[in-house]
Design a protein that fits this description.
Pfam families: TetR_C_1, TetR_N
Shape: flat
Distance between the termini: 81 Å
Number of domains: 2
CATH architecture of the largest domain: Orthogonal Bundle
Domain HTH tetR-type: 30-90
Low-confidence stretches: 1-11, 13-20
Largest sheet: none
CATH superfamily of the largest domain: Tetracycline Repressor, domain 2
Radius of gyration: 24 Å
DNA-binding region: 53-72
Helix content: 55-70%
Number of strands: 0
Protein name: TetR/AcrR family transcriptional regulator C-terminal domain-containing protein
Keywords: DNA-binding, Transcription, Transcription regulation
Length: 256
């Protein structure tokens, strides 16, 4: 019994000492939340999102994984959220807003796309990953809601307009920068192109006519992503279409 009581006392003390050493090491190398996020983004840029593991990140920073968890809040989901917030931080400030709500939204979403194009491997965190949503995105969410309020949107109509705008534009950018298959090779790319070129003229007349313009410049008809072949005019077309639609659907322009 005495042995069990003693071991029960020593184990927490040992854990505390180990944690203290780890945090002491982290402090010695200047570990901060910001440095962890910067290192994570650098790792994603160089090796892709799948390469971001706590083990690899701790190796890059030369600290124990425990020290990273202590700084970021306890889970990899918290790290993803911080990365998403860092990628869009300072994208637009309240003083950058324009007199016309449409110009504010143009500015915001063009800056958003430019920012994500600098870190294409992280694009899934800004659209497809629910775990990166939330408070870190609040600054630009506030700008969008203020613009929609200026346009006359309120309550559920504002939420619906917000979802249409963000879903369309963020979805476009994340699709544009979607990574190719892991087995992508020159042979795979050639095979992709050959299969498209073999489409039957009678069965797919519109596709065949448009194909020269669509190859590598249209969704589902490409084998290179937007880092190599950006879809600039398509993004502009979507942005202007959404703004026009929001303008027409604004409560002030909608018949009772």
């Amino acid at each position: 019994m005495a042995k069990r009581e003693n071991s029960g006392v020593r184990a927490p003390a040992k854990d505390q000492a180990q944690a203290s050493r780890q945090l002491g090491r982290a402090a010695a190398v200047g570990l901060t939340r910001e440095r962890i996020v910067d290192a994570a983004i650098d790792l994603i840029d160089r090796k892709g999102l799948d390469a971001l593991t706590m083990r690899e990140l701790s190796r890059q920073l030369d600290v124990y994984p425990t020290a990273i968890y202590w700084h970021i809040g306890g889970s990899k989901a918290d790290l993803f959220s911080d990365i998403a917030g860092a990628l869009t931080a300072g994208m637009i400030d309240p003083e950058d807003t324009c007199a016309d709500w449409r110009d504010t939204l143009r500015l915001l979403f063009r800056r958003f796309r430019e920012r994500v194009h600098r870190h294409p491997n992280a694009a899934p965190l800004l659209g497809a990953q629910m775990r990166s949503n939330g408070a870190p995105n609040a600054p630009w969410v506030e700008i969008i809601l203020a613009a929609l309020s200026q346009a006359g949107y309120r309550d559920q109509a504002m939420v619906d307009a917000f979802n249409a705008l963000v879903g369309g534009l963020v979805g476009f950018v994340t699709m544009e920068l979607a990574p190719g298959p892991a087995e992508q090779t020159a042979e795979w790319e050639k095979s992709f192109e050959v299969r498209l070129d073999e489409l039957d003229d009678e069965r797919f007349p519109h596709t065949r006519r448009a194909l020269p313009l669509m190859l590598n410049r249209a969704f589902v008809m490409r084998w290179k992503n937007g880092s190599e072949c950006p879809l600039d005019t398509g993004f502009d077309a979507l942005l202007e279409s959404l703004l026009k639609g929001l303008e027409l659907r604004a409560p002030a322009n909608t018949p009772p």
